[in-house]
Design brief:
424 residues; alpha/beta; 8-stranded mixed beta sheet; 11 helices; 12 strands; 34% helix; 21% strand; globular
Length: 424
């Protein structure tokens, strides 16, 4: 195990040093694919495992091409990069034991965030020389650890292939941040034959060495990009000839927060960004908003989203401007399968790496697009859960000083591999 532990740290630090955001995980995917192929997994990649029509908030062709060039210059595996070159960076790796048994799938997310990583002398990645090389790109949520855990799990599967049954599938998913990537893989039917599905995360407030076998409480969410288009005019000479997109956006932003709460569950709404106008003496002809809605379940989120859409339409009409709403991310609510969670709970209780295991945590959480996988597997008669490996955090998730305790890598690999053995 010592050699694997060392390899896990090496992989994690490499991914941390070269973070890639959603649908741009080109370097990451090329390296992951090369390792999985060398281990002996059957691979399906890119558009084989992603529905282009269901990729939400995908970067432009120009941004993708520029990042491809960066990836080629920064250590991407050139033999494996071609299928990922257009930003379809999903990977499905399957180990078919050729023995009768269940199909077990694990979701592994790979993307980073638009955050400028801390350069403070006390920051561990700075001390050890694996701080992000990209300005305003950082693994500040632990997906570098998740990718590494997936590769560690793949290593143990390959090393113990003779003792396993059924099929084991590793799903490396792009663009979890902003809840943009999972649906494209679900719509490509990558889990339609799955009996057991497990998604996992590190941290999220769970103490170091602790484990949650079924993390529920994820809020359904919609991510909206709103554009208002008006008419520019001279603010001093002919203000009456303008159609003010800035005022429409400002009105929408204020009134979105006036959407009523829902009696049947928690709701959230946020306007995270407002850009408008082009000059002090010009009636603004364009404005842009980034908005997100959330609800305790899918129906409640749909209520909040529809109310937000009504506010946006009303604001546009009030100021005589045109508007467009684009949904660039979405996730639903879901609840883990207790029976599968019990298996993971038992594995964690037996693991020398885990101090304490909890079967379920139903407290409200953020949002996760792994819920699309969970819903599809359960709808087809399978079982699914979302588990959490606690870790010591240097700072909270989505923070410039975020960092994990690297001992968590091996503990996660061990518990997940033991779950395969138990489910066999």
């Amino acid at each position: 195990m010592n050699n694997l532990e060392e390899k896990l740290i090496e992989w994690r630090r490499d991914f941390h040093r070269y973070p890639e955001t959603g649908f741009l995980e080109i370097r990451t995917a090329s390296i992951v694919a090369s390792i999985l192929d060398n281990l002996g997994f059957d691979l399906r990649v890119g558009k084989e495992v992603m529905s282009p029509d269901h990729c939400m908030g995908k970067p432009s062709k120009e941004e993708t091409e520029a990042h491809l060039q960066w990836a080629l210059e920064n250590g991407a595996n050139k033999e494996y990069i071609e299928p990922f070159s257009e930003g379809y960076t999903g990977i499905v790796a399957t180990w078919d034991t050729k023995k009768e048994g269940p199909t077990i799938a694990f979701r592994i997310d790979m993307d980073a965030l638009d955050i400028n990583e801390s350069q403070e002398d006390s920051h561990f990645p700075e001390i050890e020389g694996f701080r992000s090389t990209l300005p305003y790109k950082m693994h500040a949520c632990g997906h570098d650890a998740h990718t590494t855990i997936g590769l560690g799990l793949a290593t143990l599967i390959a090393e113990n292939k003779d003792s396993l049954k059924g099929k084991i599938r590793l799903i490396f998913q792009p663009a979890e941040e902003g809840t943009r990537g999972a649906r494209s893989m679900v719509e490509a039917n990558v889990v339609d034959d799955v009996d057991y599905f497990i998604a996992s995360h590190v941290g999220t407030g769970v103490p170091d060495g602790h484990f949650v076998a079924s993390k529920n409480g994820f809020l359904a969410t919609s991510k909206l990009d709103i554009t208002f288009k008006g008419v520019a005019s001279h603010a001093g000479g002919n203000p009456e000839q303008g159609k003010n997109a800035l005022l429409a956006a400002a009105s929408a932003a204020l009134n979105i927060y006036a959407i009523p709460r829902h009696s049947e569950g928690a709701t959230r709404i946020n306007v995270g960004e407002l850009q408008a106008g082009s000059g002090r003496n010009i009636i603004a002809d364009r404005a842009f908003l980034k908005v997100e809605t959330r609800g305790e379940n899918t129906a409640i989120n749909e209520f909040v989203k529809s109310q937000a859409e009504a506010v946006i339409a009303g604001s546009a009409q009030m100021y005589g401007v045109e508007y467009e709403i684009q949904t660039v991310g979405e996730a639903i609510s879901a609840e883990g399968s207790r029976e599968l969670a019990s298996v993971l709970h038992a594995c964690a209780e037996e693991s020398p790496y885990i101090l304490k295991s909890v079967l379920e945590d139903n407290s409200p959480a953020g949002s996760e697009d792994a819920t699309f996988f969970i819903e599809r597997v359960q709808k087809n008669g399978g079982q699914a859960t979302y588990c959490v490996f606690g870790t010591e955090l240097a700072a909270g998730h989505h923070n410039e000083k975020f960092d994990i305790n690297e001992k968590t890598l091996m503990s996660a690999v061990h518990v997940l591999f033991e779950s395969i053995k138990k489910l066999n």
